[in-house]
Structure formats: C-alpha cells, structure tokens
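Archive entry. Fields below.
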Amino acid sequence: MDMISHIKKLSNAVGVGGLTQAADEVHSMLGNYCDEIERDALGSVIGYRRCGRENAPVLMLEAHIDEVGLIVTDIDDMGFIHVAPCGGVDVRALPAAEVVVFGDKPYPGVVCSMPPHLKKKDKKDILPDIADMGIDVGMSAREARLHIRQGSRISFKPNFVALDDFHVCGKSLDDRIGVAAILYCLDILKRQETEIDLDIAVVFAVQEELGCRGAAVSAFRVAPDYAIAVDVSFALTPDADSSKCGKLGKGPMIGRSPTLDSGMAKELVKLAEENDIPYQDEVMGGATGTDAESISDARSGTPTALLSIPLRYMHTPCELIDIRDAQAVGRLMALYAKEGGRRL
Amino acid sequence: MTRLKELCALEGVSGREGAVREYILRALEASPAEIQASTDALGNIIAHIRGEKRATNKLAFVAHMDEVGFIITGATDEGFLRFAAVGGIDSSVIFGRRVRINGRYGVIGGRATHQLKGDDKKKEVPLDKLLIDVAAQNKQEALKIAKPGDVAVFDSDFVKLRGDRIKARAIDDRGGCALLLEMAAQTPEYDITLAFTVQEEVGLRGAKTAAFQIEPDIAVVVDSTTAADIAGVKADKQVCKVGGGPVISFMDKRTLYDIELYDTIFETAKKIGVTPQAKSMVAGGNDAGAVQLSRTGVRVAAISLPCRYLHSPSCVISEADFNATLKLLNALTGEFACMGT
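PREDICTED_STRUCTURE:
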C-alpha cells in the first residue's frame, strides 16, 4: 500500500460536516479489506472484517472522517460570503486563506484580509470575528445568491504535499491520518493473512468536530466488545508547552485518562515494547475531547483505548505529520487485534 | 493571461530577481520589434524599443520584477528556520501558510488554537515569533535545507476565480511586467523605453539606478495597488475597486504626481473608451518616488492594477482591468511621446 498516495487522496477529499466526498473515498478504499460496508443514518462509514467464528468478540477501530470548515450564513450586497465556523478552525490561519465554497458546484475563493492601513489602530493585532471576515468568490451579489446559499459548506482548498519521504502536509490530516492508520492496519492483516479470533468493525465517523456525535450512534449500532479510537494530538512546536504536547516522529501517543480503559492502554504499551514500536504517553486528567468518550459510554459501555498521532498546526490548512507515526499506530493495532484478541 | 501566469510562477524576492529577469529577456528577444535590451549592475533590465516614429520626449514605462517574501536568518536548535520579511508583509496573512524554499516546502505556524485562551485565539502572531517548519530534526539538518540569506515565497498557484478574477502570488508586480511585455510584443507607434526594475519592495532601489541611466522626460510607473473593496470596508476607505478599471495616482506616500500627465491619462482613457479610477487614498508608494527625483527630475505618472489582498499569497485582480490597462498604456504612448511640442 502506497501510504503517501492514500493520504493524499484522503487529505484532498472534502468532509466538512454534511459533505460526503471523504466518506465516499474511504468507502471505496475499505472495499479492499471489508466484506460488508454500510453507512449509518448520519453518514458514517462502517465496515466489517469477519473472522468466521460464531459470536466472535468485536473490536471496533474508529477514526473520524469529518474536518473543520465553515458554513455560509449570509451573502452581502457586494457579493462577499459571510460564514460561521463548522468546527473549531484556527482563526489565525483565515486571512488570505484559499477555500472552496460548495455551492451548486465547487467555487474557489479567498478569505478577505484587511490591508494593514485599514486595521483598527487600538486593536491592530486582533483579527476580526469570523462572521465579519467575508469570502471573495469573484461574484456579484446577484450571481453569488444564485449559486451559493445559506448552509453551503466551505472547506480549505485541498493542498496536500510531501515535504520529504516521511513528512506530509495538507488540510484535514486531523483525522484522515487516523483513517490512513486504520487502513494500514487492515492492510497488514490482509498481507499477513493473519487469522485472528475476532471480528473487526471499522468506523469512519462523521461530526467529531461538532462534538463527537457521529461515533456515538455508530458505536451504538456496532455494539463492540472493545474499541480503539485513533485521532491526532498536539505535536510540539517551539512556542508550545512541552508538557502538553507529544513529539512528531516519536511514535503513537498512548492515551491514559479516567475515561479510557487502563487495561487496554497497558496492553498496547506492552505490545509496543515487545515489538520495538516507539510510543509516547499522553496523560489527560479527564475527557480526552475525542470520539473515545462517545464510544466508551455508548449502550452499556465499552472499554476503549485512544491512540493519537502527533500533528502540528491543528485546524489550519497546513497540518503536518510524520507518516511513520501513523504506520506505527497501524502496526500496533494489528498486533492488538492478533494478540490482544486472544487474551480477551 | 499565459504570460502573467508564467511570470507569477517564477520566484523573485527582492534581490533575487534572476529567474524573472531571464524570462523577460527571453520574451523581449522573441519579440518582432527592434529592441535593445541590457542589464545593469543591480539587475534592472532596460529595453529601448524603436517605434514606427521618433518621439520628442524620452518616454519610459517602469514595472518592478521583485516581490515580497522571506529571508532566512538562521535556525533554532529544534530545527526550525528563523526568518525576516523582505518588503511589507502583514503578519495576519502568514500564520498557517506554506512557503517554497530552495525547491522544498516549509510551513509557518505555531501551537494549536486549542492551547490558546480567549482573545489569544484571534490574536495575530507577530512575525518575529514565527518560524518555518521544514520537518528537520535539528539545527544542522535545517541549515542543510536553507542557509542564512536564502529566500522563501508563499506557496500559491495561479487560479481563475469566477468571472474574470485571477488569484495568484506576486501579481505585485508581475502584473506590471506582463503589461510591459505585451507592449513590447509588437512595434509601438513611438520609441519607448521599458525598465524592469529590481528591489522595489525594499525601497524603490532599482528604479533609482534605472532612471539615472534612462534619463527619461516622462516616466509611467505600472504597478499593482491595494484595492480595499472588500467585506467590512466602507466606500470611502476602499482606495480603489477590482473591476473598476486602471487606477491613476495623484498622490501617494512617496510621490506627488505631475498634474498634466494625470489629466491627460483621464482624457485619453475617455477617448478610447476605457474607464479609469483615481486612487482615492494617499497611501502606499511605488517606483515613481525614485524616478521623479532622478538627476534633475522627471515628470511621472502611475497606472496600477487594482489588487485585493496585496502582498498576501492570494492576490486577486480582474482580467478586464488588465486588458483595459494595456489599452490605456498603448494609447498613452502616442499622447506622451510628443506632449508639449
């Protein structure tokens, strides 16, 4: 499996809340690995890899397929598109950013940036509210209102590139890189023709960026015996607090938190150590802010682990990751499916 | 627009205009017109074009080849590149952007928005706090990718937006360069001189030495200027409008323009059916500031393409403005060549 070309397709597909391009893309990718694939009522993609044994336990592997973006609230008389955030976009990355407005078809646009001489003197370094920024699609008001409507979604412009053999950059790597890691795991299991003693349910969930909603209903549907959520977490940059970040390229961040299953975390650590897979600890005092919580409290509860891939510049158009971290997550999950499954 | 597209694809941060210069020299060579082009010590191109008729005024058109960008000043122990801005880049358009550097990519960003509280979430990160991430593991690795003095530009392609709008990097002033090359593509009515200048963005420096050599009677600076006709800006602060036609300057921060030339531009435009607009705010500056004060003084005019988000990765202009400006420039050649005689 050519990891980088997979990630490129995944990053460049659009999955701002409600748009299905990214879900369609993973649906077709999953075809290589799953016997059954379905979509639930909210749009999440669910695939099953059955082991063939009656009443086999179900391990759910989950990553979210949606991404942060914007949603049209108004079109002003000059034809500028006004928006609200659809997920927590980094406001600092918006001025002059390139976007795609999904009207009756996709239209390229630019987020207005205020010329320096017009910035308010008293608060020069505070950016306007997102609602006041406006997006330039080169249309008159009449034309814009014809092609774009309130509720139209907006994404960052697809812009995936590789910086070198291992580092790649683009929009929505939060959490397409998690998706890629799960596909990588399925690829390992397929290539090794490994017999495992459990069923794997893969969930690519919608609406994580809006409050971890999609994973909750998908977990209810799948009713797994245990689950691993794969998401991204903060990778250290020189301006950040190192105690709150993982390090890029230093391996999966294994989550420890009151909301996560500590036994599964221990098992993952053990497997990593036994198999020389680098890993980092990510300890959180409470909710992890990922789909892990909404999976773990679905139905009567599911033991859930969280594996995070370190990522820089989260929620900007230029998220940056090291693919080796994602591959290590994939390997770790494949080992867990083989070894952990037997111990369950 | 092929020429503009090709020019915008080239990297030419102030002082590093080589690729743009070579492109322009090749284009001049390919023209059927009789052109004598030379390069001076700073890297300006000065091209004398023989017209169908002799001009009584030495008439020059000036556009700058350089663009704003970044210059590497060093690297941190963690392997991030330090940089300074070359020319006026507003800090609000840098965060979350990708740059091209020595044929590779870098990313400018910082800690995640999730790790900021309250107003800090929408606070611009000052330029001197930003670094370029080239995914290097340490200082040595980073300095292998780029050394102090190397330059970077925003990574932004040439895209047609809806209608006649174009989005690209470096339209300031590859737009002017493209217009001058169009003028040189056929034999003009009168003799003219074209100057493609260097180092405009760092103080109008190329234009100073170019004007010294050309000794023009009249110079027309062809540049791109801030159009603030954007969301949230009142009509009286918009400076000029994209789609509103060529922008004519009466005064900016560097130049008080020749009033007769200014009036003639409007009259000529009217004759040929072009609608120009006055630059309605005294702001900015261009090569005219240097040319006007060359030797014993030069009469100057400035005609600019209205450009939104100037000096950002996403400059936006209108193709109709470009074409109208070209038409106006060609007509002015005749008007200015024999003016006052």
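CURATOR_NOTE: The mean pLDDT of chain A is 94.
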